[in-house]
Every structure is written in C-alpha cells, then in structure tokens.
Amino acid sequence: MELVNQPTAITCGQSCIAMLTAKTVEQVIAELNWDKGMPPDKLLEGLDHYGIRRGEGFVRISRRNPLPDGVAILHVETNYNFSHWVLLYHGKYYDPKFGIFAKEYPHGKAVAYLQVWPLEDGEG
Question: Which residues contact 27 (CB under 8 A, 6 or more apart)?
C-alpha cells in the first residue's frame, strides 16, 4: 500500500479511495466529480463506483466491535476538532494528512470503521 496525501484540507475520503484503487487522488476527484469533504454516504458511493467490495455499513468501534483485521476505512474524531477518514491496512494507519503510523494512531480516536477489500492488481 502506498500513502496518498490529500491535496486539500477536505479530500481525505478521496485520498483513501485513491489508495485502494491505485489511482491518483486527482483522478478520483475528477471521476467522482466531488472535490468537497466526503460524508459517509458519498464515501460509500465512491467505493461502489470503483467496484471496491465493502461491508454493509459503518460499525461503531467498541469492546464488542474492535478494529478489524485486514483493511478498513476509519472514521476518526481528531484531536484538532475535525472528522477525518484514515485507511487501516493490515495494522498500519495510512493517514492522508499526517502520514503512516505503525501501532497506534496518535492524532485522535477512531470511532467507526467500514471494512473493505481492495482491488487486486489489474482490476478497476
């Protein structure tokens, strides 16, 4: 997985989709015709557009529902008073704003996740 940095303060969702599709974030923004912040329904729509398999919906993180193994898009409430999308990829956090983190996410708290299954090479 390669980190894709978000080009603006509000394109973290598009950047997560770009990481999952191996497209540039600029391509994702153009193809989805969406350069604004991505609410959950728009993120789901974007994943569906690219044929990325996903869970039915977001799961609230709790003791009963811990972070999944594998790959997920996390909804994070940051320490800086904004919501943010971050890609969790096999135990590493790929944050399009702050970088890659190996063990713990230092910029806020993940409150929900959507499990996803990235495209294989050659798909999409």
Answer: 18
φ and ψ at 41, to 5 degrees?
-65, -35
Over residues 84-98, the mean pLDDT reads 97
Full-model pTM:
0.94
Tokens linked to 100: 């890659």
What's the CA angle centered on 82, arms 8 and 96, to 5 degrees? 40
Tell me the torsion sign for CA atoms 108, 21, 44, 30. positive
Task: Provide the domain limits for residue 108.
Answer: 12-117
**What pLDDT, on the 0 to 100 scale, is given for residue 62?**
96
Q: Into how many domains does the chain fold?
A: 1
Q: Which residues of 10-40 are buried (b: 16+ CB within 10 A; e: fewer)?
A: ebbbbbbbbbbbebebeebbeebebeebbeb
